């Protein structure tokens, strides 16, 4: 079939080869850029004025070091990426000038300009070297609120409620409901590097056409669609099991299930659980199953029970969600909170959802002084 040739050509075309060195002092340059305060004015090459609006976020995968930066360049707002190098000429040594991943770079941050004038035609800022110690979490056993776990779980439930509410407006619209369920499940499948890519794929699926396809050809349909959209799948830094080509079968099974509106035929958790597991055999790993059910299926079923006024069943669904546990904790939070939270709590799904909320709203914004997990009377 045509699908197979698309599949082969697409994945061969998107296997990027990145030979960029990962040296500590280049990492320090990236970190130094991120410490520049918004509003700071820098002078770039050719006397261009650069005002930092938003530094952007670190990219852990293929492509530029910093993504989604917002800069005012000579009075014009630009949104794009930032690449950091020790030497300006590294832009050419690393072949970024012929790599499409770098087409959206709006600023080049370097330690040294090239005396031979071999500098890219991109505004370039030189930053002097400085030691920047890694910012550590200031939460400790001494200043931790004695009800820290309860606070975390409350944030987890708040996150859950938002997911439940997201389904409240699509209960009577089968097409929109299918789109929402596919999009949300694809976001989980793509977590860790390809979330935006799977979202793009989900948003361009023809639900009506998909529902008519046999399950065993839907994977090829998705591969053809990703090729048509020229989706740049990321692989560097992603474990083999999480690579996009290894997630596509599960994506196809869930897309078929949701496009057929089978999940909307019942509000009883056990019936839905068995139905999904029967028709989505790739959903066999406990970790992925917990993520899909905890982030998509259970919030949807809770919303559906509320829609039908089944408050007793709604409460049962919430209790099921509260008891969810992952086989292993998220590494990020295990490293950060291992001394303050027992292993059992770090595997609890509501706790992990709460930590995601706290990390996004406090940790990533450096709001340590007002951390909700601290005892405000014993902060040290």
Write structural notes for this entry.
It is a single chain. With 380 residues, the chain is an alpha/beta fold. The chain has two domains: 18-126, no CATH class; 148-369, no CATH class. 47% of the residues lie in helices and 11% in strands. It contains 15 helices and seven strands. It has helices at 2-13, 24-35, 90-93, 148-166, 174-189, 195-203, 207-212, 215-228, 244-259, 269-279, 286-307, 311-322, 331-337, 343-346, 349-361; strands spanning 41-43, 49-54, 57-58, 66-73, 76-87, 105-112, 124-126. Strands 1, 2, 3, 4, 5, 6 and 7 form a seven-stranded mixed beta sheet that branches. A hairpin with a 2-residue loop joins β4 and β5. Mean pLDDT is 85; it is low at 1-24.
List keywords for this structure.
380 residues, alpha/beta, 2 domains, 7-stranded mixed beta sheet, 47% helix, 11% strand, disordered N terminus
């Amino acid at each position: 079939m045509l699908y197979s040739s698309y599949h082969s050509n697409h994945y061969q075309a998107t296997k990027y080869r990145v030979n960029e060195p990962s040296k500590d002092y280049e990492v320090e340059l990236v970190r130094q850029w991120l410490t520049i305060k918004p509003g700071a004015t820098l002078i770039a090459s050719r006397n261009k004025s650069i005002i930092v609006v938003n530094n952007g976020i670190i990219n852990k995968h293929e492509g530029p070091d910093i993504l989604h930066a917002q800069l005012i360049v000579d009075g014009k707002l630009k949104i794009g990426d930032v690449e950091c190098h020790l030497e300006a000429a590294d832009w050419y040594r690393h072949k970024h000038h012929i790599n499409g991943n770098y087409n959206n770079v709006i600023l080049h941050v370097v330690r040294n300009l090239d005396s031979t004038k071999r500098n890219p035609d991109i505004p370039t800022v030189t930053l002097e070297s400085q030691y920047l110690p890694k910012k550590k979490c200031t939460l400790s056993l001494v200043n931790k609120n004695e009800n820290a776990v309860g606070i975390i779980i409350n944030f987890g439930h708040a996150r859950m409620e938002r997911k439940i509410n997201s389904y409240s407006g699509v209960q009577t619209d089968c097409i929109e409901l299918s789109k929402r369920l596919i999009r949300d499940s694809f976001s989980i499948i793509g977590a860790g590097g390809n979330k935006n890519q799977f979202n793009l794929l989900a948003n361009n699926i023809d639900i009506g056409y998909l529902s008519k396809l046999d399950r065993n050809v839907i994977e090829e349909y998705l591969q053809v669609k990703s090729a048509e959209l020229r989706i740049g799948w990321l692989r560097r830094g992603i474990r083999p099991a999480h690579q996009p080509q290894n997630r596509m079968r599960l994506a196809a099974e869930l897309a078929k299930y949701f496009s057929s509106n089978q999940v909307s035929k019942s509000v009883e958790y056990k019936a839905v659980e068995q139905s999904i597991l029967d028709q989505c055999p790739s959903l066999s790993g406990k970790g992925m199953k917990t993520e899909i059910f905890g982030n998509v299926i259970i919030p949807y079923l809770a919303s559906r029970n509320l829609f039908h006024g089944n408050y007793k069943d709604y409460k049962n669904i919430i209790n099921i969600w509260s008891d969810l546990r992952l086989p292993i904790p998220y590494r990020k939070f295990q490293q950060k909170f291992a001394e303050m939270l027992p292993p059992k709590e770090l595997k609890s799904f509501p706790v992990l959802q709460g930590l995601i909320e706290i990390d996004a709203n406090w940790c990533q914004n450096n709001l340590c002084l007002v951390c909700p997990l601290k005892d405000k009377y014993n902060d040290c």
